[in-house]
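Q: what sequence does this backbone want?
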């Protein structure tokens, strides 16, 4: 086992400056998959369960959404919510009796609401209810992506070490290229966030600055407009 005296943030930043593996890159058809950007995890003024994120996180997610929609490609929003009493929460529902425990996130509750600062197109975007970590687990996301001929999934949201990482691993396992815009994911603990970004970058996908991703999407738009193959 390799050991280090550096923090996980330093280890991730060292890798980002000098990656040891080539990037997976972007394909021809992308989907933006926003994982659990609901008030339980974004509204730090109301909920202690929320994550301290990059201050530009939601604005950058909005810009990515506008860009992907402009390409005529899909935007997906997942959210977690349960039946009264959390009877469909599974093992997550037995670990805590706190009023803020996950099983108490009920459909229609403030905790389940997508953050109002986010630009959701209710006529075009897919709102995807999930119960477990990965957005792929027991949802129709795989068939939706197949129908839209998607080869690349952009993943935002939280937590980096939880539902984002689970979604990234499943996306790669389903045969998709994966891109994580660094400023658009968040976690409760600093070390878990950077450990997961490092793990994703080394194994499962590309972790890139959001501005670079937006520039790459601009190039994709030019390619699509020219009909290049």
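A:
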């Amino acid at each position: 086992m390799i050991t280090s005296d550096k923090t996980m943030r330093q280890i991730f930043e060292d890798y980002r400056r000098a990656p040891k593996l080539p990037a997976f890159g972007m394909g021809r058809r992308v989907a933006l998959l926003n994982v659990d950007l609901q008030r339980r995890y974004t509204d730090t003024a109301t909920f202690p369960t929320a994550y301290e994120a990059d201050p530009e996180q939601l604005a950058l997610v909005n810009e990515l959404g506008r860009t992907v929609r402009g390409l005529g490609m899909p935007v997906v929003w997942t959210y977690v919510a349960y039946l009264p009493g959390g009877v469909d929460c599974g093992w997550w529902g037995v670990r805590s009796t706190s009023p803020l425990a996950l099983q108490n996130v009920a459909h229609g509750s403030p905790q389940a609401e997508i953050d109002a600062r986010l630009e959701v197109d209710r006529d075009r975007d897919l709102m995807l209810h999930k119960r477990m970590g990965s957005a792929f687990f027991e949802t129709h996301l795989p068939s939706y992506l197949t129908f839209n001929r998607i080869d690349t999934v952009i993943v935002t949201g939280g937590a980096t070490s939880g539902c984002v990482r689970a979604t990234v691993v499943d996306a790669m396992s389903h045969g998709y290229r994966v891109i994580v815009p660094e400023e658009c994911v968040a976690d409760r603990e600093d070390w878990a966030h950077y450990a997961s970004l490092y793990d994703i970058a080394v194994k499962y996908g590309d972790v890139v600055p959001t501005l670079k991703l937006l520039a790459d999407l601009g190039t994709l738009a030019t390619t699509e407009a020219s009909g290049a193959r």
